[in-house]
Structures are given as structure tokens and as C-alpha cells.
Amino acid sequence: MVAWQTDYMFRFGKVCVFPRFKHPLMEEGRQQELPRVKPFEGYKEVRYEGYSLFLKQSFMDRANAVSAKDTGMYLDSERGIYVSLHVHDPLPLYHLEEIQRDHIRWVAMEYKQALTENMKHFFVVKNNAYYKKMNLADDISTWMGWELFLQCREPHNDVSIFCVLLRRQHIPPLMDTAQDFAIVFRVDNSNIRDGFVQDEDLVNECRLAADLFATLTQEHVWYRDMVEAKLNALLFNEEGFQWLSTRLKLQPSVADKARVFLKSILKIMENENVLTTPELLTVDLDGVPVVSDPLVVKDDIVRSGEELGLDPHDETEDMEIYRNEWVMRVARYLAYAVDGGLLGGKFSLADVCDSVGAVGTEADKKLRQVLDFLLHLRPRDMLKPFYSTSLVKAVKEATFGTDYCFNDSVLTVMLESQYVQKLFHKSSADGGYANLLAVLLNSPCSSSLKAAICRQVLHQSQQNVSQEYLSVITPALVGLMRTATPLLATYATAALTNLSAANDAIKNVLISSGAAQSCVENLRSKEDDLIQYTLTLLVNLTKSVHHRAACCAAGLIPITIDILTSTYNQMHKHKTLTHLSSLIGQLGNDESSRVLLSKRGYPTIECLLYMFQNSKPSAPLKGKVLFALRQLCTNDWQTKQRVGKFVIKTLIADLRETTSSDFTLNGLYLLQTLATYKENCVEMNAANIKECLEYLSQAQSLDIVIEKIRDLNHRINQQTRAEFYQ
Q1: Domains in the chain, ordered, with CATH?
Q2: pTM (2 d.p.)
Q3: In whole numbers, what is the pLDDT of the chain averaged over residues?
């Protein structure tokens, strides 16, 4: 309060008392209502579907075909800004996992696809997480957000769009639902150019609206008894357990037994001298009893299900399903408890996985049994009880991907800690581990697990892996690239890029698996990362004639030119442009493709020349642009003339300043190609090419560079002889 008064006196030169509200502690017969925060000066409160936000007073309701007001659409006619609010229906948290929308990022990707559906050329200025900064309604729910800033410069779609997506999670009264919202600001770029509004205004107003977005109710009643009942029945996921523990200080009734389970695991590891932090036993879990076999505690927790109405003597099918589902939920909660749920970052499931194989036989057996239960590999048919099943044996069944279920989070940790690879080590000759990964990639498991597999393949691609492993995993990655979300498709494409580098056998597998068609489809997406990695993969695939033919037959050239014409002037996408230029250069190895790329209907040459003019001399992009230009100039004197007039003078100047051998070599190759046209040789002499080549011959030590300098000198001398013009 002192700081506020001081600031007020400093700015206005007078004393003001901080606003204060008085209310009795208890008022008979009437429920106390807290004062609502009023809009700022020049703003008004907008209410829609049980929520409110603040917009400038110049915004008016925009009618639709059904209603004249309360449509969730608003227009500021003075500045030409359209605002639309979208309030989605609440969904159970478990359903979000099933439909692959368990994070607001996936919702943002869907919105991006919808907003850009009719846009051919657009810019993604922002695409990142957003953190809501205000809580006007004292809401106990969790809020998360994502922001998108898109700009399109097309004649009939010249707009800027800023969108903030919000998710309200763990909504009262039961704390088991989530609701998504979208606040979209749209303005025609003509209004920005005319000075009616600025980009910053659009961004700041949308962010302010998102920060002030709140529920109309200020009393968030939650049903403690019902929440505790669901919690004791372990009906929340790992994130729900964590949120209830930290926000509401609630834990399941079996939490104490879970501590016994965890401490018993720690005691086994301490006895085997593999526990790196022994103080966990005496400090964090002090006073918690220990048992010799942790699974005894598991059995005790399973039996406690009788208190929830699970009658062990009831043999009906429904009761059998309930009992098996209870055992599965127990395994999931215990996995959460071990993997940081009780001790945070001090101990995790990965520590248990790392201990297997490093302890004695008896301890190793107990730890493996614990991990098997936590993984909980079991039939999807819930009428069948859980039996500890070997993952090595189960994956050999043809119906493994469809007939079995497991804890995705546990298997993700097992894969990342190399535990699963250890299980298959003795039987690696039959490709069992690769078969497991391939089945998982094409099964309905979580996105996080599939992403972990792709990351592991990326890591293994840097090691010596067998050809059998590669032949199994490659088609599975192609399938994932074809059917998955853009993020997983990006992971799969990156993995395939590493696997196919300098490996013709894998390239053949990729082409036969339909990778060319999948790459073309991915290039049609509007995800920058996916396009970049797809271009990198195509650079690998187009190094041989028959692979290029397959890619061109899939429609690669038109989409390549489309991407070039839409991104050539976006120099901040230099990585994408570098791979794109390299791809164009490799496609130019074939006469038919070269003619198509450089024909008058396609502005390929013009786009490349723009990139040449606006990129740095030592940047990889400029070297690849030179490579692409050289390829397109081959066997076409008109193209040589066009390119020569534009690049010769600048290129010769850049060659004197660059330190990049790649740029130097590509520059000499291009000059050598241009030198077959006599007017270009005259242009080179006018730009002091001789002095440049003399400098390069002294500065460069590579034999191939010296050879190209010698050849270029000879070609220029031959073309500029006096008798040549007779």
C-alpha cells in the first residue's frame, strides 16, 4: 500500500488513500458477495457463456444468423478489429487423453490448421506457450495457455490474426474436467498500413483479454466428500494426483501404504549399495515401516478395495471387471508414487530401472517383479485377471498391439532408461526389440510414448545398429509419419533423416514403403518444423536417379515450387530455405526436372536470386542457393544470361570476403557454369575476376578449389580471346 500511495503522489502530485472495503465477519441470513473488479477507464465487461473479459468500449456485438447479441463476436468498426470468443464444452480429463488432446498445444495445432485453411502464403510470427497472469475470480482451477500470431499477405486474404487459447483444468465441483477457450483478434492489414491500428495493439489487447478472462461466479464450491471418494478410488491420473496434493493437500487413503512400498524399494537398493541418496530413508521417509518384499504392500492395497465395495465373493462379470480395473489403478498410482510423486526429483522410476542387473539375484528378482507390476502389461479384456507377463514373450504374439494394454508412462521411462533394451539383449538376433518399437509406433498408445521411441531411434542412429533392426523400424516410422499428428510426424521424419543418411538400403526401404508420397503430403501441411525436417529427408532421398524419379512421380516439384514462392522472402526461416535450395539443386540433376523448375511459368530463378541478394555470404543458405542456381543454369544459355547479370559482380566481391570453403566451392562451380556463356566472361573480367582468383589461390589450400580456379581461368581466357568473336 505504501508503494501504491508513493507512486500516486509521484505521478499526480496529491495524496490519495488506497481503496478499502469493510464487511462484517458474519452476516445473518445473507450470503456475502465479494465486490467484482470493474473495467478500466475506456473498457467494458463482456459476458459470454458464464465467463467474462474486458474489451474496449468501441467493440460492439456482431449479429449472426441466429441472434443479434451475445454471439461471442464483436467488432471495433473504427479500427477494423474483429474479436471472436469460443467456449468449448467441458470434457472429462480421461477423455482428453483418449482423443489425444491432453495438452493445450494439440488444441492450438488444430486451431492453426483451421485458421490457415484458406491461406496459401502466411507467416507464423508466434507459436508458443502463454501464461495467464490474473485471477479475478479467485478460481482454484489450473489455467494454461497457448498463443498464435499469424499474418497473411494474399490479395483476398490480407489479414493478421492473434489468438490465445486457454484451458481451465480441474474445474469444481469434482475437479475432474477441463474446458477450452479461444480468444481470436483479427484485423485487415490495410488498417495497419493506414495507421488505424498497430501489430502491438492487436497483441496487447488480446493478451489483456486473456489475462482478465474469468468465471462470472466468485464462489467456487467443490464437493470435498465426492472428490475424496474419487481420490480414494484412484480415479485421477498422475497429473490429477499431483494437483490435488499440492493445491488442496489431499492424498488417497492408500498414500501411507504407498510410502511403505516406496521405502521398501529404497531399502532393497540400499542393501545392494546402489542407492545414491541413502538419506531418503532417514529424512524424507523417516518413521515409515519397511517390508522385505514391496509386492506384499501391493497385495494389501489391492485387498483394501473391499472397503470400496469390491466384494471378493461376488463372481459376476461386472464385479470381476471392477476388481481388475481397481488392480490396474493401484499399479498406476504406485508407479506415480515411485516416479517422483512422493519424493519429487530426489528419486524416480528410472533409478529403479538402472538398478536392475546391478544387484544380487534375489534383489534383482524383486525389483523386476515390482517393475512388471507397475508396467501392468495385461489383456485389454478386463474380464481376464492380471498375471505378470514377460514383455519379451508378449511382443512375439501377432495381436500384441491390439490385445494388450499397459501403463504408457512406465514404459516410456523404461525405454528412456534402456531397461527394455536390456530385456531384449539376449534375444536381439531375432529383432524382438525392433518389433516391439514398430508395434508400439502403430498402436493406439500415448503420444509421449511414441515421441520417446522416436527420440531413442534418433539416438541409436548415431550408433552401429544392425540392418535387421533398421529394416523393421523404418516402415513403422513411415507409417507414423503418414498417420500421426504433426508433432509425431516431425519426430518420425527426423528419425528417418538420420537413419537414411549415407544408407542406400534404408533409402530403398523408404521408397518402397511409400515415403515419397508421405513426404509430399507433409509438405502440404502448414507446420514449419515438419516442413523443415521433411525437406531434410528429401535431400537424402533425391541423391540417386531412381529415388528422384519416385519423388517427382509423387508430385514433389509443384509443392516444392509452392513452398519456395511462399517462403523465399522469409529470411528468418533460413534453415528451411537452405534445405529447400539444396533439394532444388538435386532435382536439377535431371533434365526434365530442370526444365520444369526453370520454365517461365515458375518464378524459381527469381526467388533464388532474391535469396542470394538478401543472405549473408558465409551463411550455409547462400552456398546452397549458388548450388541450385548452377544446376538450373546447365544447358540453358538464357538462364545463364539472367543469372550472370544479377550475381557475377556480387559473387566475386563475396568470394574475397568469405571464409567458408563450401561457399567458395559452390561459387566457383557457378562461375564455371556461367563462363560457358561469353557475355558472362566479359562481365567477370569487368568485375576483376583475375584479382579475385589470384587471392583465392593464395588463401585456399584445398586441391579441388585450386583445380576449379585453374579451370575457371582457362575457360575465361578461352572465351575472351579476340579470335573468339570473329
Answers
A1: 43-215 (3.40.1000.10), 250-379 (no CATH), 430-554 (1.25.10.10), 560-726 (1.25.10.10)
A2: 0.83
A3: 88
